[in-house]
Amino acid sequence: MTHHQPKIDTSPKVSDEVRKTTCYMCACRCGINVHMKDGKVAYIEGNRDHPVNKGVLCAKGSAGIMQVNAPSRLRAPLKRVGPRGSGEFEEISWDEALQIAADWLEPIREENPEKLAFFTGRDQSQSFTSFWAQNFGTPNYAAHGGFCSVNMAAAGIYTMGGAFWEFGQPDWDHTKLFMLFGVAEDHDSNPIKIGIGKIKARGARVIGVNPIRSGYNAVADDWVGITPGTDGLFILSLIHELMKAGKIDLDYLARYTNAPVLVNGDEKSPDYGLFLRDEDGKPLVIDRKTGKLTAFDKPGVRPDLHATHRAAGVTHRPVMHLMAERYLDKQYAPEAVAERCGIKADKIRTIAAELARVAFDEAFELDHEWTDFRGEKHTKMMGRPVSFHSMRGVSAHSNGFQTCRALHVLQIILGTVEVPGGFRFKPPYPKPVSAHPKPHAKVTPGSPLNGPHLGFVQGPDDLVLKEDGSAGRIDKAFTWENPMSSHGLMHMVISNAHAGDPYKIDTLFMYMANMSWNSSMNTKGVMEMLTDTDENGDYVIPRIIYSDAYSSEMVAYSDLILPDTTYLERHDCISLLDRPICEADGAADAIRWPVIEPDRDVRGFQTVLVQLANKMKLPGFTNDDGSAKYEDYADYMVNHERRPGIGPLAGWRMGDKGLQHGRGAPNEGQLNSYIANGGFFVKHIPEAAAYYKPWSKEYQDWAVGMGIYDSPQPYIFDLYVETMRKFQLAAEGHGDRQPPDHLRERIKATMDPLPIWYAPFEDDNVDTAEFPVHALTQRPMAMYHSWGTQNAWLRQIHGRNPLYVPTKIWKANGFAEGDWASVTSAHGEIIVPVAHMAALNENTIWTWNAIGKRKGAWALGEDASEATKGFLLNHLIHELQPPKGDGLRWSNSDPITGQAAWFDLRVKVAKASAPPDVSQPAFDPIKSPVAKGPSELTWKVGK
To answer: Residues in domain 4Fe-4S Mo/W bis-MGD-type (predicted)?
Structure first.
């Protein structure tokens, strides 16, 4: 009999068209193809032509379709009608919402702009939001970097002009040894996964240093389960071993760093520890050829790492002498640090030897001609195939800034920065500190701020202090408490505003910052601060305006809600002025554009800011005749110029002969050009400028043409950060601007110009015998923020989060599957489910962050696993350190940058004798302005 095959369409039509844009499910900013059918999103895939992900897309990116179908989406502007925290709102029109906001903000601007505190979360438009705040006139603006990774960013920029993550990447094509420290798995995930796959395919080794073996560390060839907070000590021990063995790149150090720069060695001098400079202010070195003093950048100079100089009775020694004295000290020997780091001494030696072997024995050369900033022509580029990557794990400690600096010094002494096989900067980096603005905070009623809010101080004169010495900003950024706080201190805003320290505010305006839940330390305390009233019954923080796309926990604590769109319904600008999508081989930026129209009465937050600016006629947004410069954010993206010829987008600008890239006049068709090109622009770096960017004439000239610099900005790396020495000198009594007495010893101890290690502050402030266990959080690779944890697809990966317990603690407490634990810190207690994990530092427990939800939020049912079995470690952490008996409460932050010290947490663990029904603490359900989602979220796209 004839067998009849069924007729199956093996290539069904899945979409009517494909719209290309940029993902927003994490900070990777991958290119995506959004498949449309009957005007709706059918599915999302990676864009193979995109420079970031090259077609690869992770679970988060694919699940973006569920964000635009999420039941938790806010549907219209809301005005609070019940008590704050009750979740009782009424829907209002946009006209009314904008009028309310303007009625609150305009009097503040005319009387005292500092009464507005405007802080944003993980948005990617900080160049724009800071421009808005600057034109409003408030000094109180920052984004989330202060509680995320400012230690990493600031340490990298102060040391070498750029840092990890968005600022640079390994040379994946040539690296033979890749070492990761404390990498957050939600960040840069697709490029790192692609890169690790590439290097492992050709036999390169991966070493992971992290207390927790998950994600990237799980695929590492060698895992180092370090004790939290001791990474800096481990790194300095590696430096000790390399210097002791003579395995450092002396030629690189002499040419491209301040290792040969001469330092004043007279302890009685007011210039003690500062550089010897010429009349033009340039640091001086000794030329090996002539033996004479000369500026570091003089053509033909060969800086000497050894020679000293004596003048007027003062001996000036090169930085290299100071480094040798510091790091060859036995305190950094492997035997001296092994127990504290939780790493055997032989292991430290083995890793140091492997770094040296690969960097020097497997060095190679590329036949690329290039010219350095001293005018010397080179025919080859030396490759040292060792690269590093790091992120929040080493950054989120009170010693994080110095730890990050130590890691950069390790890279630099090996000669592995901006060379083939090593770490490479992504445009617009590298940039010296001097190319960045300094912070500004001069408030003038009815006028803009006198300059950018955030920046890089170069000494005590740049601190943001009022005439009486008090803080100029509500978060106390750029004060003696945290002088180099380049990203602000978002985690301190609410508690400082509540305490009226340094002053009271009128309105707290926040965007995408879930500060009443997973984005705050001391969660319960913050909720109380947001609802606290004074003796007159008025709220201590009088007004709160908030923008979010979803019904998050923070919505209930706000007075006016300006509902945002989801990322497929909006315009966004991923700009070279901000956080672009560049790779090391090229400058790139990107847009998002509304591939679908909202089915709700919502507006993109950036457009709302434009509309508010127009309503208040803010300068920068208003023409001379009083008319509005910009209609919405898309209009701003195209027509705004930060300086002549430089706008938010670098591609397809107008020149004298037509369209050009980099510099140019606004082009009305610019967005259409981006859309036609897949939503992105890229301009590749010439081969001669591919490496040695800080010192390459070819790169510097190319960067000027692109508008990254207005003039060439070559510089040398700062192994020794003179800015920090200036603060130490002030603490020692030198100079006109002096710190308060209670901070002098801390400044002298922590702000060493060469990297040091000191124990995390919590170790000194709590009884570590009572609280012997370290507690950490990580963000899961499948989620990035609160908005991902309510995603119907991603919830199936992480619908709850247990407390992961290592074998030693598991056995000591007699834990079994299904048990619960009581976890107690100096601040509070939680009772949560536990799970056993062997691949974990033996004195460390951890959990996934942001999985736990408060009942009633995010349109989840009250019996949802996130609200019953999910939890936050945040309840155990306080924004202030425990009292020390000195009458002061110190910020739980790095003393240099102010970064939140999330990972300093010390706890004790015990088996819960009577497990509760739900994780503790449990809070009353929030009343939500959106209805609960259905038990099954299903829909059909197309026929």
So the answer is: 16-72
